[in-house]
Amino acid sequence: MIYVLHHVAALVLAGLAAGYLRRARWTGLRPWLAVALWQAIALTIVVSAVSGLLALGLMPLRRGIVPGLLAFATTPPDPLRTLAITAGLALAAGLAGQQLWCAIRVARQRARHRNLLALLAEARDGALFLDHPLPVAYCVPGRTAEIVLSTGARALLTDGELAAVLAHEHTHLRERHDLALAPFTALARLFPRCHGVSADIHLLLEMRADDRAARRHGRDTVAAALEKFRAHGAAAAPPGTLGAAAATTYRIDRLRRPPTTGPRVLPAFVTATVLTVLATPLSLLLTPF
Questions:
Q1: Sheet holding 122-124: strands in order across?
Q2: Distance (Å, whole) CA 251 – CA 253
Q3: What are phi and psi of 128, to 5 degrees?
Q4: C-alpha distances out from residue 181 to 38, 207, 257, Å
Q5: Would you give the distance in Å from CA 277 to the centre of its chain?
């Protein structure tokens, strides 16, 4: 029973860490660390929920979860144990199926969009340009990644601002921010209460891309480009893409008035705690009960 309680404790601690991370102010200083912590927390919650149910059903075998599952098929059936194991496997299959379905759906959206770009867009200046009066800037991730701008955006931005926007989108593509966001988008479809977390992570990824662009072109240049997008009503990015004009007001304030210092010990402590909590359910997958 102690192993089941370990999974429950890891689940509770991961939930507390998620609540803290949503309120923490230092995440804007270290967005990539915050994204990595969110991924560890999500993995902890999923593994703890699934393996906790499996451990409940496999306790009498005293072999650990993975060896216990292999031995379960040869043991006499027990209704309560079978129910717990079935629930755990069903939860795992449901989560995996949702991730797969969302991945296929996004891949199809991107394929259709690339077909439209091939017909409507013109390649120049390191991007594909669409004839559209509203300012638009986004990237289409994948093996054939593309950066898309509208003619309205090109007319609106100076050369320096255009270069900053391109650097922002290149960061999304180079660091594969779409893969970091994808699991949370799928979870938000399965559990609507996770939508706020997905939006938070999207904002963190945009801040990360802002920071990378600002290193090369300056914070004021990136902020000026965002201000122009906001003032001229930037169009939303198509589904399956990452747009540069998300949550512009907060990002502009962050770029214009960057904090001079931030906590160092607290992020390190939170990181160590989250990784320790994650290690608990993972280690119990093979540990004999």
A1: 122-124, 127-130, 146-150, 137-140, 242-243
A2: 5
A3: -100, 130
A4: 10, 14, 27
A5: 20
Token reading at 275: 């990784």
Side chain identity, residue 52: G
How far, in Å, CA of 197 to CA of 178, rounded?
15
The span from the first CA to the last CA of the chain, in angstroms, equals: 9
Question: Which tokens sit at 264?
Answer: 């160092």
The tokens for 41 are: 């927390």
Q: Which amino acid type is present at position 169?
A: E
Please, what is the Cα angle at 40 between 244 and 262, to 5 degrees? 65
Name the one residue in this structure whose structure tokens are 């969302």: 102
> What values do phi and psi take at 10, rounded to 5?
-60, -40
Report how far residue 146's alpha carbon sits from residue 128's, in angstroms, rounded to the nearest whole number.
Answer: 7
For 246, the token pair is 């998300």
Rounded distance between C-alpha atoms, residue 79 and residue 137, angstroms: 56
Beta-carbon neighbour count of residue 18 at 10 Å? 18
- The residue length of the chain stands at 289
Q: Are 149 and 129 in contact (CB under 8 A)?
A: yes
For 9, 43, 76, 147, 183, the CA distances from 40, given in Å and listed in that order, are: 16, 5, 37, 30, 12
User: Which two three-digit tokens encode residue 225?
Assistant: 């480009």
**What pTM did the predictor assign?**
0.88
Lookup: tokens for 71: 């031995």
CA 226, distance to chain mean position in Å, is 22
Tens-digit pLDDT profile for residues 172-226: 999 999 999 999 988 888 888 888 899 899 999 999 999 999 999 999 999 999 9
Please give the structure tokens belonging to residue 167: 């650097």
